[in-house]
Amino acid sequence: MDARTDxxxxxxxxxxxxxxxxxxxxxxxxxxxxxxxxxxxLGFPGALVEDWQDQAIAKMGELLENSRPLRVFxxxxxxxxxxxxxxxxxxxxxxxxxxxVARQDLLRSVYRYYFTPLGxxxxxxxxxxxxxxxxxxxxxxxxxxxxxCRRCSVFCPYGIDTAEISMAAREIMNSVGLGQKYCNxxxxxxxxxxxxxxxxxxxxxxxxxxxxxDVRDDTGVDVKFPLDVKGAEVLLITPSADFFAEPHVDGxxxxxxxxxxxxxSWTLSSYASEAGNFAMFIGSYEQMHKIANRIRKAALxxxxxxxxxxxxxxxxxxxxxxxNTLAGPWDFxxxxxxxxxNIAAITHDLIQRGGIRLDKDANAGMTVTLHDSCNVARASCxxxxxxxxxxxxxxxxxASVPAFVxxxxxxxxDKTFCCGGGGGLLTDELIDLRVKGCxxxxxxxxxxxxxxxxTHMVAMCAICKSQFTKxxxxxxxxxxxxxxxxQLVSRSIRLATNA
Amino acid sequence: MSILNFxxxxxxxxxxxxxxxxxxxxxxxxxxxxxPLRVFTAPAPATRAGAAVRVGREVALFESLFRADKxxxxxxxxxxxxxxxxxxxxxxxxxxxxxxxxxxxxxLGIIGSFAMVAGLVGLIARRLFxxxxxxxxxxxxxxxxLLLLAIAVSGLAMTFIAPPxxxxxxxxxxxLWRFDPQPLPADPALIIHLVLAxxxxxxxxxxxxxxxxxxxxxxxxxxxxxxxxxxxxxAWARPLDQHRS
Lengths: 499, 245
Known about the structure:
Chain A is mainly α and 499 residues long. Chain A contains 21 helices and eight strands.
């Protein structure tokens, strides 16, 4: 095992006590601001506008009128502190502004000052303060230290969701010309090219042909990776990382083998070649709508019957919880299937019905654990019943490997810890934050590695996979330890026979 | 009518009006603001009825808080259940003669008042001694707890140390009800208790105490998981749908 341990994992218990407060420990950690071109491509002002204070407060007023969650969440917090020790970034950094309640208060204090009589009257005594340059800088810093994973929301007695508040803060900042480079640049690429990576259709076609050859060489079976095939049954929308990055691409090969073996005709779209919808991270309904409707157009143009999503957490949240609202109604698709479906639900169903056969021996020697991705666990569902998001991946893993072990119960299911790279933070300049934010997950992983000889961790989200392969080596675990859910399926599926 | 009576009575009446108007205003605002997307915290019930049960459990059992912090859950429960019992006990000051259940639960109300004080002491101790909670506390957070404590202690003082003339109190309160001024019993504990309780009512809709209403409108808890079955397009978002294929 890789011996490069830069951060010592401090516990054998799987979860450790919250750290002591380290004020301002992360005050210098912030992402690159977007260039004017990145902002303008999304219709935002290129740079900070002159009367940004007035415009920001006006925008806040508009958001309050448009969003009940924002209004209720800003009013309802009693500062009880139930959430204070629940954030992975707080666990990793000790910075008190990474306590969810303190993060919310960065925005709530301004809300109290401009929108509540008591806040205006009592000022700081009531935790209210005017918006000034320091506050704006604090917003840009700490609202980009929130991965919108919603773990805090699970524990809040009023269900206050910090993700809603950090999305609103980012939207306000964008509206006055202070965007984040990573997110805005990527959203621009989707509008222009169709995917987060800026992979043009010709390159995509090339990649898929290469994959067909690889699988043929590997298995001797002619598994197709169709692109822009009109009249296919299924349109597969998957994160663009699946087209080349490891271990993502092994997952894509898994989906292809499942479709092949189930005899389902399917296609990818070069126009909607991205499942991810980074507009959620910046809280922009309008941008999210625009990206989501690329999928609608692709489905209409290709005349498909069903919509299926590949492995991705936040993409699946937008797909499962928002897509019908943003891009529906889906009355032109086959009404016998939910829209959209997740590839995991399809694979799971096929396993149950004997539509595909998995051979555990193909994964001999593997002991696997599962990282529940936050947006799958807490913001959506995979199948038809609440809680399916936990059972479906576990049952798929159990069917494809000899041994499965869960991590500490406070770090899985709806209490799962974020990988540390979600919410638009998967960018190199935030690597310090990403490593520290990964610590709770790494601690839980350490326990099952030490006690149960776990060899691999499954993630079913493109961001989790990218984050872990980059960051886990810092904790002494090799990047190959991270596998896609459908990578296990890919290795164990019996092709050309269902016996 | 004495000047003191006038001042106290006006304050109580105005506070009550501020309370009713403030709550009605916020509830109207919450109810009329659209929730443009499904943002339930999963796993969420599939039906509206299921979501209502979920909210009910949050309100009655503080379920999420229980998962978060057992000590905080305990002191919060002590305080809130205690407060509920105390409020029920107070019905006899407003209804003559008191209904049988209210008459029967009077001893329970006394127990409730002690539970309330115990809970408040626990909550105050957390704000003082837990470094994380101390960091997020502002003056108003402590002020609200002290206000509640002062109300509880002044009430207990009337029960155990210097009981006022109950009939006079009932007469006075009935007078407030009907805008027919009656003499204010000259009892310091009573006057303090009354004024502080009125102050609490007055600030409730304009402070964090609004969580009383907010908990029912929390989208992460009250939304069913029906996102793939229903569209939830807010009126302001509708024009976006017109510019698409």
